[in-house]
Structure formats: C-alpha cells, structure tokens
Amino acid sequence: MKFKSQAATILALLLLCATGSALAQLAGEPYIHDPSTVTFSDGKYYTFGTGGGGLISDDGYTWHTGAVRTGGGVAPDVIKLGDRYYVSYAVGGGGMSGGHASNVKIMWTKTLDPKSPDFGYHDVGIVASSDGVEDCDAIDPAFLYAKGHLWLSYGTYFGNIRIVELDPKTGNRMPGNKAVDVAIDMEATDMMYRDGWYYLLGTHGTCCDGPNSSYNFRVGRSRSVLGPYIDNVGIPLLKGGGKLVAAGHGRVFGIGHFGLLDLGDGVQKFSMHYEADMDRSARSVLDIRPLLWKDGWPVGGDNFQAGTYEIESERSGFALELAVDFVRINTPRRGFGPPPGGPPPAQPQAGNPSQPAATRPAPPPAGGGFWGPPTGPVTPIPDQTLEQDSAVWPAGNIGVDLLDYMIRPHQKWTITPVPDAGGYPGSPYFKIQIAGTERTLAATADGEVIAQAAFTGAPEQLWRIDQLTDGTYRIMPKTVPGSTESVALTAVGASTPTLAKFDPKSDKARWNFRKP
Amino acid sequence: MKKLRMILMLGTGVLALSAVSAVSVAQSAAPAAQAPAAAVAPSPGPGDAWPPAGGPNFAAPKKDGPRTIAPYFTPATAAPKAPDADGFLQRWLLLEPIVKPNRSNTVFTGTYVRSTFNTEYFPNQFTVLPHNGDKVTVAGKELAWHALDTANFDVKLYRFAYGLNKPTYGVIFWAVTVIDSPREMKNVRLAAGSNSASMWWLNGKEAAGLFDDRRMKMDDVVSPRLTLNKGKNILRGAVINGPGLSDFCVRLIDENGDPVKGITTSLE
Q1: I need a surface site. Which of A15, A38, B163, B221 has the fewest CB within 10 A?
Q2: Residues of chain A with pLDDT under 70
Q3: B133: number of CA atoms within 13 Å, CB side?
Q4: B159/chain A closest Cα distance in angstroms
Q5: pLDDT tier at B51, thresholds 50, 70, 90
Q6: Taking CB atoms and an 8 Å limit, are A239 and B105 in contact across chains?
Q7: Which chain A residues are closer than 8 Å to B18 by Cβ?
Q8: Domain carrying residue A273
Q9: Residue A459's domain is classified under what CATH number?
C-alpha cells in the first residue's frame, strides 16, 4: 500500500513535470506579436496583433485565430467606451526602411465579433503622427480612459513617448490638443489610473530577437496624466527611469505590450506577448498574468503553479484540512525532566489508549527533559505518513474545516491543472486533492465544500485560482451544482469554510498557498 | 516594435507583415537617412496644436532639408560651463562618428566592446585633448572634432551625426571633456548612461563600462569611488551603436548619490 502510494505520487510528479510548463501557459494557438489589450466582447475575449487579424477565446485560456482587424499596420490597442470598441493602430514608422514617419489611426466597431451583424469598422482618422525626422516615432498607441478623459500614449525608442487627448465621444483628437513628451527610451507604452496616480508603463530592452530579446515592462507614475512620470527611486522617465514590472522567466523570454485586464472584485490581470516561448519553437505568444500592487506600484504576478501546498486562510491563518481525527506523531516524550538537585516531576500521560498503537506516543524514556542536552544519540524523526494519518479517515466523502496547520497529510493539498477542462483568463481549471490520494475538494449543491472520495471531472470539482492584487488568492469552483451563482471559498468562521459571494473588501475569501 | 522592423528590413522577419509592407504612402515615402532634399515646414510636434493649422490632420513625411545640430547643440564658449542642476556634464568635444557597422546591438559584449575601443582609430586616441576643428583620419575618412554645449541633460549623438550629415547607425563616437575641480575630491563616482554600449576613462584610467544592448538611462552604471584631482581632470568616453538613437549622459555624484558641486567643464 505504501509503495503503491509513493509510486503513484512519483508518477504524478513526472507527469506534471512533463506537462506542467505547457499547461501553465495559454492553450490553443496563442501566436501573436504586439497584442492589443485583451478585451471582452459579446461573450468572448479578443486581442489583435501586428499585421492584422488576431485571436479569440471563449474563456481567456484557450485561444484561436479568427479575430478580424482591418487597416493593417502595427501594434493596435482596443478600448470600449459606451457602445463602441475603439481600435488604434499605427501605419508606417518603426524604423521600417529606415523611416520613422508614421500615423496613428483610430476606428471603431460596435462589436469585436466578426460574425455579428453589428460588426464593422468605421474610420475615425489620424489622431497623431510623426514626420520621420522629429524625436518621435508615432507607433504603438495605447488608450487610457480616466476621470472622463480619453488619452493616448504612443512612441518608440526613436525619441520621445507622447500623450495626446482624444474625444471619448468620437475617438478623434481633441481640437487644439498639444502632444506632450513624457518618456524616452521606451516603446509599447500603456497607461493606468489608480488611487490618484497615473501610471505610464513601457517596454525597455530588445524586441523581436526570440530568446535573445530582453524586452521587459517598466513603470513610472505621476499625479498628472501629462507627467512628470517618476520611478521608484526618483528618476524621471524622461531621463530613462522605470521600475520593473515584469520580465521573462522560466521558459519564456521578453515581455512586451502590457494591457490591463480588470476583471473586477480586486482581480486585475495583464495581457502581453512573450518574444519567445521555448515550449513552442521560440515563437511569440500571448499570455495573461495576474497584476499585483505593492506600495503603490504595479508588480507582475505569476499564474498559479501546480504543486502541493498548505491552503491558509488569510482571515484566521488556519489551514484547510479534512475534518478528521487528529493523529499524534509518535516521538519519545521526555517531559520536564528533573531539575538540578530536585525531585523528578510527574510525566505526562502517554496518549489515548483508544488511539492505534502505531500512532500512540511512546512511553517517556528515563531521565532528561525536552529542553536539556540529550542523553543519547540525536536522530531525525520522520514525518507522519499518509498511512498513519489516513488510518482514522472514514471512507466516502469527508467534510473540510480550518485548523492550526500541523504539517499533517490531511492538510496537504496537491493542486493540478485539469487538461481539456477549459479555464479562465490566463489559467486552466485545477483539481485540488489531498496529496497522494483521490480525495478531491468539491462544491456541494447546498453551497458548502467537502472532499469527495474520487475525482470525476465534474465541474464542481474544478477550481479557478486567481491571484488578487495583494498577492493572496481567490479560489472559486467552476460551478455549484444547481446554481449559476459565482461563489468563492470563504472562511465564514475562523475554522469553518463555505462558499459565498466574493467580497473584495474582506479577508474571508483570501487564501495563501504555502509550501507544506 | 523598432527592432522587428529592422529584422524585416534585413530580410529575416518571421511575421506575416505583407500588410505592413504596403501600408501607406507615408511609409514608402519615408526619407532615406542621408538623402538631401528641399526643406519643408515642420510637422506638428509637442507644443503644436492639433490639427495642424491650414493643413491636413496628418503629418506628411518630412522631406530631408538642410540639416543642423540645432537646437540640440550650440558651440562651446571659452568660459567654463557648470553642469546642469542635476550635475550632468554638458560641454563636450565630440568626434564625428567612425563607421563601425553592426546590424544588432546584442553583439556588444564586454569583450567585444573592449576590443573594439582598444583598436587604434586615430593617433593618441586615449591621450589627446583635441581642439574644436581638429581633424583626424580614420580608415581614409577625415573626421572633425566639435566643441559643443548640449542643450539637454544628455548628449544626443544621433542628432549630432544627423545634423552634420554623417552616418547615424553602425557608428562609434569619441567624446572628451575637461572637468575643473576647485579641490581634490575623494569618493566621487562617475554615473553614466548610454545608448548603446560605452566606456569611460577618467584621467587615463578606466572608470566605467556599459556593455550589451543598452538604452540610455541616467545613473545606469556607476563607477567605483574615484578621486577628482584639484584642477583639471580629463574625462574620455566612447560610445558604440548599431541601429538606434545614440546618446549618453554623464554626471559625477557623491557618497549620497547627489551631484558633485563646484566643478565646471572646459575645453582646455
């Protein structure tokens, strides 16, 4: 039994190693360069890239070609205002044939769904340009709508990044508006507004050279949309400053073209491309990752990684566990020992006689307290095994609760992506199981959460794990049987988990994943 | 995107950009880097209201007219020049660019840059204190030194070369300035940024090296603690770039990272 369990664990780890990296990235054919901000339209997600066309996804995890963008050119961006999706893109410039003359154009459509009768682009016109000589190359436009104003940043390494204001009712340039220089040595910029700060993000490093690309996001912030934008150590972006937001890691190189994807309820993600995904022939691919905030600065998070964890409640600090009898770890009990020159104290009881003999504490050895120097050899004590812990587990479904983390097998959860089960922006659905077992966390029809005896692939056993902007996680079942309500794992009491509507202002539904 | 275009230009592009290659008159009419042509009215830039007065609401590609290094540079004067408020040195002797073709800046490893700068291009390149108008001959081409004050915190080498109708990409620039210090100053650091790689020598000793493919940012690389001599100190630099907007910025900072006060720059 023990051997089988270990063998199964090893096999699972090997399978995870073999498939983990691919599963951790977007599924389908997410091949794109310079993606526009991922945008939701009529039940699907869309992004457009350089050269025309783009990608569509039903769930934000599996992507296919099929999006339609006219106008050609490079590096588009999309924003929805009212009933219009405005699309900006640049024609010309970028150093093509040695030239930096370019025009930023705007068009709009009422839907991004090319199959909809409402689909169709309407040209607004040119809203910014560069003449090929001046210190600007008008490409890589990006929108920001904040406080009733529509802004557009653009530019590359050839000179300055500029911001202009557009009319949110038409998408055209505001009459009389003057472009303002806000940064140098950046390209593929984007902007955000949060808590009274405007953030200007842009890409530093080398583009378009596969695994030799050093593309990375940098950011500065300002109280005014027109700057000055300053980084975390006080260097103006007009002097090359910029705090790192995200860069390549693992098997992907070079991040470019940030786009904010605000999913609400405190969940923010960002879309971008990697210059090279080494698991996909070093092609340029789309990805979506969590966006975190630390001390007023955006920080690139990572999508949840499969593994075995303690699941800790942010509310109580207690660990999610099977609600089973606690099993003591069998170590020699030394009590308090005799004080120097004094009589020996009474020794503690040696445990509950009803407990299995294998787990019952050993009788105290003669002499020596637990704090004093050892009187015999010092040896490591093995962890409690799954066999020892599970000896007292009932068959069938088991309830779950929250309690002190005692490094016990019934508190260690192996979380694994489920192939071909779909996902959500950036990630696949996961199954959550007690490590080394088939005991699977599931939502119940009455809105509670239990551990079922086996994984069936049912949607109530599939879990969405989103990292929140503070670095904690929200854990949501794909569905609750018989319900369409969206709920999250929530500590309704210090020791009691349930499923409830997610409250972004509370710690009740925030969780941490810790190495066990 | 810039490098993507370069890659395409070099015929090694991987993206299906046929639409891009035929996108506009503007693009096809983009000026060749060095082609002379008649001057035209400047296109809208920062400070210009939109749309351009009396014209269409787009900036027609600017045909290449008479070039100038203004407003980026002005001729240096005989009077000493203090650094700007942030301590950036703004008076330099700049040598017209030496042609050194490189299609990518990823080749600028430390080994490559050291080897390239240690190559002798002109006599006494590590010791000469040139004067405005002095000329050297490199690979059969006569190049002149220009004594200039930069109008910005950085020295826009691209604009220096472009304004003089010299090559702008695949080039090496040499720069020299004289720092006058009222007293000996210990524990001073030289802080430099450059696009792309560069090396800097203070009083003949290597102070800083900026290698690999770099964009210019202030205080990118900071030297070990140095000593400024009382009186004259010669600071010499070399910048190499393939494709890109060459520039550099240099200042001296104290133990607190603040600009060193009391120094001036001169040509002698």
Answers
A1: A15
A2: 1-24, 96-98, 333-369
A3: 2
A4: 9
A5: low
A6: no
A7: 51
A8: 29-300
A9: 2.80.10.50
